[in-house]
Write a structure and sequence with these properties.
There is one protein chain. The chain is mostly helical. Helices cover 71% and strands 0% of the residues. The chain has helices at residues 2-7, 14-20, 26-33, 39-67, 78-94, 100-112, 116-129, 132-145, 149-160, 167-174, 185-198, 200-203, 209-224, 226-233, 244-258, 265-275. Helix 13 runs antiparallel to helix 14. It is globular, with a radius of gyration of 20 Å. The termini are far apart.
Length: 276
């Protein structure tokens, strides 16, 4: 109630109010736990928190979202940027329970957006919460912007960061897309890098499959682009803080890389320090 009272107070800066509506990040929560981190437990707890706000404060969230609508031509200035941030933070929290009414608002924003910030925010909600709506929106977005490489990088990134264990299969499928190439560093970072570094639920699958997948990509990139390969290894940096099952599977993936022949200096340096 205290958070919502402040977030609804128009006397505060919109960008500040937007920050109030963002739950703690996964790294912040994990850092507080320090050891024995269980990514699934953190995600489950954060989802309950989001749904609590959505279910008990939905009307206020919708009022905040509506009040931040901009009835003026697009401008990148701080005032409009703050209002967009507030609107999208409220929409994201409002849609946490996947209710049709909230998803309808996300769909309307996606359909009518006059800027990429609002369009991507709505697309993210539809992809994570909207089921079939998300798939249709992804197809439309790709069709509309396939000529713009930086925008399609965002398209890959959104799909790679869906917090679901099935996202690994989606990433593998996206690697077969004509728009993806392991020789394109930006695409590798957008798809595989985002999956490994920004999707703690999917990357830290209990079966260790995602660790093995990323380790294979590191070895593949070792010959193509050692710098990108080394950066990708950064996703393992906190493996020692994980609970025992995941910790051992992550260690095995790192040891597989370390035991491989022909490692570049960059990759060898990162993997050696990671295992130390």
């Amino acid at each position: 109630a205290a958070i919502m009272a402040a977030a609804a107070d128009s006397g505060f800066d919109p960008a500040y109010r937007a920050e109030l509506l963002k739950p703690p990040s996964f790294p912040d929560v994990a850092q507080g736990i320090i050891n024995g981190v269980d990514p699934d437990a953190i995600h489950s707890a954060m989802e309950r928190l989001r749904k609590c706000f959505s279910n008990t404060q939905g009307a206020v969230l919708d009022e905040i979202r509506a009040s931040a609508e901009i009835d003026a031509p697009y401008s990148p200035d701080a005032e409009q940027a703050g209002l967009r941030a507030l609107k999208n933070a409220a929409l994201s929290l409002l849609a946490s329970d996947g209710a049709d009414a909230a998803l309808d608002k996300a769909q309307a924003q996606f359909d009518g957006a006059d800027n990429m910030t609002d369009r991507l925010a709505a697309l993210g909600v539809l992809v994570q919460r909207g089921g079939e709506r998300g798939g249709a929106a992804l197809k439309r977005f790709y069709d509309d912007f396939q000529r713009y490489p930086l925008v399609i990088d965002k398209w890959f990134m959104l799909q790679a960061t869906v917090p679901d264990t099935a996202t690994l299969d989606a990433v593998r499928a996206l690697m077969e897309s004509p728009a993806f190439s392991m020789r394109n560093p930006n695409r590798v970072r957008a798809l595989i890098g985002s999956f490994a570094a920004a999707n703690p639920v999917a990357f830290n699958r209990l079966d260790g499959e995602s660790y093995s997948f990323v380790a294979e990509r590191v070895l593949e990139l070792n010959a193509l682009n050692p710098q990108v390969a080394a950066r990708l290894l950064g996703a393992f940096r906190s493996w020692k803080t994980l609970e025992p099952v995941r910790r051992e599977k992550a260690r095995a993936a790192l040891e597989k890389i370390a035991a491989s022949d022909g490692l570049s200096r960059d990759v060898n340096d990162i993997v050696t320090r990671s295992l130390a």
